[in-house]
């Protein structure tokens, strides 16, 4: 063991003694000091030698430079439901992926699965960071050479947004500004932005096209609309290629069963219908509560457009491929077909084989009767069509993952948002 403190056996009496006005140095002590300096220098030289021999020394990270033929995509929120599926697809298609996530809602387990599937150097890296921290975001952009950003990270529950609006404006609108500023500063040329049909509010006419007026009615939709507006204003004087995708209701999971949807248990009360349906089938909740049976729809329950996550990430890859400098593309991503809540519940019962108890209650304030997309524009311009349009099949795939992952990806590491 090295001892840089007092030598053993050395007593206070034989240490150097300062004389008034003149410093007396014990010659034995002087040689000790020289010895220590020599030892420290030798150790430092040894460390440098060993570091230089290590394979990572002097080798820049493959993520830090642009490489011809390789598109490096920053996936914000890549530990979340849609972001993890998008990362899987990008990696399968040979993209280089950097995931940035603060794990406030996502799962490190999903990232670990991706890392196991793509362990080769330069394929995937995970950076734990909060997009609200502009300094951290700038550091990420300064150290990595991104070709494109897919900005998924967001808090994304309509009900929660009405209870905590400021959180939504901060997390969605202001964080998008941070990302956009970093992209502008570091010259990242392509942005694919995750928007939502909630930006349309409650339109008079169905189906919803991209020119349907956007009149959002809750803070979630408003925060996303503001983020869209910032992006569009910025794009007017920039050569950035921008694609804004407005998703309808996302369901399903990886058909090969590697990833699934695993929201935090505390978010269940704000949750989505598919999550509630699986929880009821697993016996985690006693049954399903369908709110509103007197809407002006054929069976009285609300109508929504359910888009499978596999189709959704395909739309992202197509948007990335077709993105052009100085051009903005805005697309609805939905099937074009509305299904009622009753239909959904029946499909869910069949997919899970569970006899789910359903309770029919009064309407929930703020819910709109009917929302479904017109996907003509994305069909024509991006050559994209939804393939997973059988509700029961999508739910069967998702159910397989849910059944074998009762606790999601395992005990989540709880972190702040
Ligand atoms: N799920 C849907 O039905 C749906 C519909 C329309 C639009 N969207 C949009 O799609 C995107 C992804 O949604 P999702 O369903 O995968 O949600 P999710 O909660 O599963 O994933 C969001 C991810 O973002 C991360 N995140 C949140 N705030 C962050 C921050 N400040 N810094 C870094 N990471 C942060 C979370 O930890 C999480 O991993 C969101 O932008 C959402 O608004 C989702």
TrEMBL record:
<keyword id="KW-0119">Carbohydrate metabolism</keyword>
<keyword id="KW-0413">Isomerase</keyword>
<dbReference type="InterPro" id="IPR036291">
    <property type="entry name" value="NAD(P)-bd_dom_sf"/>
</dbReference>
<dbReference type="Pfam" id="PF16363">
    <property type="entry name" value="GDP_Man_Dehyd"/>
</dbReference>
<comment type="similarity">
    <text>Belongs to the NAD(P)-dependent epimerase/dehydratase family.</text>
</comment>
<dbReference type="GO" id="GO:0006012">
    <property type="term" value="P:galactose metabolic process"/>
</dbReference>
<protein>
    <submittedName>
        <fullName>NAD(P)-binding domain</fullName>
    </submittedName>
</protein>
<dbReference type="GO" id="GO:0003978">
    <property type="term" value="F:UDP-glucose 4-epimerase activity"/>
</dbReference>
<keyword id="KW-0520">NAD</keyword>
<dbReference type="InterPro" id="IPR005886">
    <property type="entry name" value="UDP_G4E"/>
</dbReference>
<feature type="domain" description="NAD(P)-binding">
    <location>
        <begin position="74"/>
        <end position="389"/>
    </location>
</feature>
<dbReference type="InterPro" id="IPR016040">
    <property type="entry name" value="NAD(P)-bd_dom"/>
</dbReference>
